[in-house]
Specification:
The chain has 197 residues and is an all-alpha fold. It has one domain (14-194): Phosphatidic acid phosphatase type 2/haloperoxidase (Vanadium-containing Chloroperoxidase, domain 1), CATH 1.20.144.10. Helices cover 71% and strands 0% of the residues.
Length: 197
């Protein structure tokens, strides 16, 4: 991914330039749609909180501990879940992001919302990827009826990153798709058995 034209990157072919333009247009439309909601104090508080608890996948680690120790009652399953979340985060933040090095829309987020300043590049969103990865594993672990709960939390945490302007909306969409795909692949490779699913 690239930032806006004129950012010092070498010239791109017409297909890549057209794709970049479409992505930039999508990001602007979503950002404009979010702006009226940013002015609502209660909504801003919810998304700021969601963004903060998504740091380092804290919300998913806590949910995993609660499910593992209070519902499943298997320490081994809990440890596998926590380990898989950590592994996915490492792959995205220290692997995938290094391939793209996309600039963030802001370096510290919207001034109206105090959030942690990330040290990695923008694409894809790590919060978004981790959220959909965790929601996919939790659905397999706890059962399909619980899926709406986990994916609802994932949507809020993921979208919070565009809301506070620390990610482009397209980063969030790509992160969600990546996390979902990796989650399904992980289950196909036998992670469900590790979780006792």
């Amino acid at each position: 991914m690239s930032s806006a034209a004129g950012d010092g990157h070498p010239a791109r072919g017409p297909r890549r330039s057209a794709l970049d333009a479409r992505i930039a247009a999508f990001d602007r439309r979503v950002d404009d749609a979010l702006e009226p909601w940013r002015e609502r104090r209660a909504v801003g508080a919810v998304f700021r909180f969601a963004s903060r608890i998504g740091d380092f996948s804290v919300v998913w680690q806590l949910i995993g501990l609660i499910v593992g120790l209070a519902v499943d009652h298997r320490v081994r399953h809990t440890a596998w879940f926590v380990g898989l979340i950590a592994a996915e985060s490492l792959i995205v933040n220290q692997g995938v992001k290094r391939l793209f090095r996309r600039n963030r829309p802001t370096t510290t987020g919207d001034a109206r919302f105090q959030v942690r300043r990330p040290s990695t590049s923008s694409f894809p969103s790590g919060h978004s990827s981790a959220s959909f990865f965790a929601a996919t594993l939790l659905t397999a672990w706890v059962g399909w009826p619980s899926a709406p709960i986990w994916y609802a939390v994932a949507v809020v945490v993921a979208s919070s990153r565009a809301f506070v302007r620390i990610h482009h909306p397209s980063d969030v969409v790509a992160g969600a798709a990546f996390g979902l795909a990796v989650g399904l692949a992980t289950l196909a490779l036998g992670a469900g058995q590790l979780l006792g699913a």
